[in-house]
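Box 3.1 A note on notation
Throughout this textbook, protein chains are presented in two layers. The first layer is the amino acid sequence; the second is a token string describing backbone geometry. Keep the layers aligned when reading.
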Amino acid sequence: MRRIQKIIIISMVLLFIGGSLWAAASEDTVLTLEKALSVAKEQNLDILSAQQELVRAKGKLTEARAGGLPSLNLGAGYTRREKPDLAGNDEENIFGAALTLTQPLYQGGKIRAGKQQASIEIQQAEYYYVEIAEQVALNVYNRFYAVLLEKENVKTAEDAFAFAEKYLDEVKKKHVLGLATGLEITRAEKQQAESRTALIRARNNLEVAKINLLELLNVKLDTSYTIEGNLSYAPVAGQPEESLKKALAYRPDYQRAKLQVDVQDQQIRIAQSGLKPSASVSGSYRYDDPEQAYYESGDTWQVRLTVDIPVMDSGLTHGRIVQQKALREQTMRNVEKKEESIRSEVSSVYLDLKTAAQVLEEAKLNLKLAEETLRLAEVGYREGVGIQLDVLDARASLTQARREYSAAVKDYAFAIVRLRKAEGVLTEEPVLP
């Protein structure tokens, strides 16, 4: 619980200083991954909503505590009589006031169970906040990496377009010398047009990715900014057994599910209180207009002890107890289901991580082969032992290989992030370059 409270306190502090931090970010127009995570903690709507869930839970605890505390009520009355009554009292105005103090003594354990339940729900709200913070952080990584990927795709498209322009100039020069045909010029122009279209599409995709990121951060879309960072990765070492152990210890959704069993235990006690005695004591003071002839005194004091002993409720309480016990059993099954889900998620993430690493190695090798293929195709075409289509195909393959390599780096880096999320420690152990 100290870990959860620490996260919440830090986030609350960030919320207060967030405005100045983001103002600074707007001035220097730089948004790094670390700053994006910080801004999300301060401004993301889901996180702000989760903070209010904690406020609501604390309000329920205050309400539950009030059930066992004394209550004081003040009442006043005023009557105006137009005609004399049978006793001959002809006063037209009658005033009265009463003050009543009530203290519950025993409510069959309902008050105590209610307070314990409210305390547990505060813990649940704290875990819920961390759960939302973890999910938002995962989304920030995903969208930030998407921006970095699109930046790499723009670089790849720019390089391909620059190559197409240069290649078209070379073919035109060869055509002047009679070393290239009109068909070769047409092919080169077609490659240039396709490269220009790909560049336009890549730049548009980059802008869309930036918009998606800013939307998640709850930042105005007209904010001037520059996304700073590069796609990178570092091999991760770990064992599924260790990650599973960590997940069962730290996953907020799992801890919240277990706490729900405790909530149901208190619900059973509240239901059982229906057939238990209850007692309360009350004292009242009443003051009435002393000028009324039929009042001996203007002050009236009264103290009352009330004890209620249920004898029969026709099965009402029993029915409630049966319902709550059934809900507890369902909650236990949900805990077991959540544990199995976590086991499956951890195993799947490790498989995805292994696959991403293998794909990355293949993409790296494919990129080297594509670069070498283009080099050989260009040499062969210049020396007259190759054809133009070899160069065009090799260049297209290189562009595709670069895109696939960038995507593979992004997938591997995000798989590491998913592992931290599966372990329940993403916000405490961020994956930063």
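The beta strands are 30-31, 71-80, 93-106, 226-227, 278-288, 299-308. The longest strand covers residues 93-106.
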